[in-house]
Design goal:
Blueprint: E1 12-14, E2 19-21, H1 23-41, E3 49-54, H2 58-70, E4 78-83, H3 87-98, E5 102-104, H4 109-121, H5 126-129, E6 140-142, H6 150-159, H7 175-190, H8 194-213
Helix pairs in contact: 1-6, 2-6, 4-7, 4-8
């Protein structure tokens, strides 16, 4: 199929936008979305040291590549990779000893939307409302790829020659989250924009809180 933007050969189809995209326009589309997300959430500021959690997957390596490209000409922001063999707790401990201010995870659209929907269903709305308690001394977790589907991240990695392991199948012990993941995956086949709608709703609810707190 041809790219909807330039008529070159497409490498992916976006069911939620109805567009076919070639390598150049997929890269541009992802870059635009991630930059917008970082700007809206104020996830990058002068003086930051951003640590990208690395488990060896192509998605993690792609996120590190993206941040290195984004900050390559900036002297006021550092970017480092953090091995994540010990899980998020291990990453947080390592970050604390290296002066890292933000930890970036390669969480995909599917993962982020399912997690938020599960939280809503169990009545845990802190992530959506932004009312979770501030922990100034703790590195802030950021999810720059959270609006990007997993297949687009995989295509982005291939385009830029980024290799990595296949993500290990997680043994999730949260039955609600497992049910929500299956439900949302099935529903999204008929309504591709649904995962985006969940994240957009939560971000809309967060906006007044960020304005009131000055964040």
């Amino acid at each position: 199929m041809q790219c909807s933007k330039c008529k070159r050969e497409a490498v992916i189809f976006q069911p939620y936008s109805g567009q076919y995209l070639c390598p150049a326009h997929l890269t541009l589309d992802i870059g635009t979305k991630v930059r917008r997300m970082i700007r809206q959430q104020q996830w990058m500021r002068p003086g930051d040291h951003i640590g990208v959690a690395l488990t060896g997957t192509a998605a993690d390596n792609a996120l590190l590549f993206f941040f290195q490209d984004l900050t390559g000409k900036r002297m006021d922001i550092r970017v480092s990779g953090i091995p994540a063999e010990g899980g998020i707790s291990g990453v947080m401990a390592a970050a604390g000893t290296r002066g890292i201010t933000r930890i970036a995870l390669s969480t995909t659209l599917e993962q982020a939307s399912a997690s938020l929907l599960a939280d809503i269903l169990r009545g845990d709305v802190e992530q959506c409302t932004g009312t979770d308690p501030d922990l100034p001394s703790t590195p802030v977790l950021i999810l720059p790829f959270s609006h990007i589907p997993a297949d687009e991240i995989a295509a982005y990695a291939r385009i830029h020659g980024i290799e990595g392991d296949t993500p290990a199948r997680q043994q999730d012990t949260d039955p609600l989250l497992m049910d929500v993941q299956a439900l949302l995956a099935e529903y999204s086949r008929r309504h591709p924009a649904a995962p985006h709608a969940i994240l957009n709703l939560c971000e809309t609810l967060q906006s007044p809180v960020r304005q009131d707190s000055g964040r």
